[in-house]
Task: inverse folding
């Protein structure tokens, strides 16, 4: 469960921060190019943050008390593989979901 | 039909296929947010004020793990940092438009409106700033209303879904599905690998701070490898 006090701190700051990021260059007239090192770093933010966000929960899911669950692990690997192969986010979600429910049903 | 109206329609039509992803994705946010204990009003306020899917999911996940607000913010803002590049890329095309136009565009600057506009400018470089803006808002009209409505629907059915549907795993699957198509170059693959490895090794660090170290390390390795490959090729 989400702590409501945290939520009400996060909400306005995240909203304003996200808007500031979007407004940054579009809003300030000067269309100065960014330094090369910064552009390079920004290109890798999403692939650096998102995997780290999920990896521990995939291997040690809170829902099973932290014990590695073959169904969840397999579903994660299938999602990743299908997403890389097809480049389709929706296809990967469907493949991962089907894998998860099929394996949970078998184990059930 | 005026060129501006034509441009608007081109944006709308080009972005239309993206609704296949946006609709279910927004619905999932509504479901996961209400399952995590937000009420419908809070979930919708979140979606309307932040309006950035991946970071909203990131914030939900870290808040559920009881991470302190600073860690939640650092993580979800990091997910949105890619939009600095969107803002940089669009700035020269819209610099001549009035500030209120650009301020409104900034709110609606999402993956879909950005990708549609850049692709259309590529095809029709001779467009005026006004026509480019029409393309942008055509794409916005295709995805933004759907995003809000689907969120609302997800939030309304959210608490009705019983826990044995393993919804705990909807988030990890969604994130992996978002990342996988981005892994189209060696540095991207290596950065994702480092990110996974470090986050597992540092999982014991308090308050989700291991995540921040892992993400910084992965970003440095990705950017470093990117640079090294370019220097070697040159």
Result:
């Amino acid at each position: 469960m989400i702590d409501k006090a945290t939520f009400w701190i996060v909400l306005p700051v995240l909203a304003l921060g996200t808007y500031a990021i979007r407004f940054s260059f579009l809003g300030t007239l000067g269309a100065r190019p960014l330094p090369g090192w910064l552009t390079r770093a920004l290109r890798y933010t999403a692939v650096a943050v998102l995997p780290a966000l999920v990896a521990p929960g995939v291997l040690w899911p809170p829902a099973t008390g932290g014990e590695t669950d073959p169904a969840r692990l397999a579903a994660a690997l299938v999602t990743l593989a299908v997403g890389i192969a097809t480049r389709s986010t929706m296809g990967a979600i469907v493949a991962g979901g089907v894998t998860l429910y099929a394996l949970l049903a078998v184990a059930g | 039909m005026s060129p501006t109206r034509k441009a608007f329609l081109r944006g709308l039509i080009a972005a239309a296929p993206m609704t296949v992803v946006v609709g279910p994705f927004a619905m999932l946010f509504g479901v996961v947010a209400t399952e995590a204990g937000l009420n419908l009003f809070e979930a919708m306020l979140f979606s309307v004020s932040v309006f950035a899917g991946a970071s909203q999911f990131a914030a939900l996940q870290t808040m559920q793990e009881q991470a302190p607000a600073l860690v939640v913010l650092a993580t979800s803002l990091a997910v949105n940092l890619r939009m600095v590049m969107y803002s940089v890329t669009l700035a020269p095309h819209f610099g001549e438009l009035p500030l209120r136009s650009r301020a409104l565009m900034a709110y609606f600057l999402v993956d879909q409106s950005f990708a549609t506009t850049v692709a259309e400018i590529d095809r029709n470089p001779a467009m005026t700033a006004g026509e480019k803006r029409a393309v942008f808002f055509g794409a916005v009209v295709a995805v933004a209303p759907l995003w809000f409505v689907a969120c609302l629907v997800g939030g309304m059915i959210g608490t009705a879904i019983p826990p044995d549907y393993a919804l705990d795993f909807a988030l990890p699957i969604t994130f992996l599905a978002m990342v996988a198509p981005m892994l189209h170059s060696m540095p991207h693959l290596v950065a994702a690998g480092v990110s996974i490895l470090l986050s597992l090794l540092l999982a014991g660090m308090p308050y989700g701070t291991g995540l921040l170290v892992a993400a910084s390390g992965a970003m440095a390795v990705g950017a470093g490898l990117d640079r090294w490959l370019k220097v070697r090729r040159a």
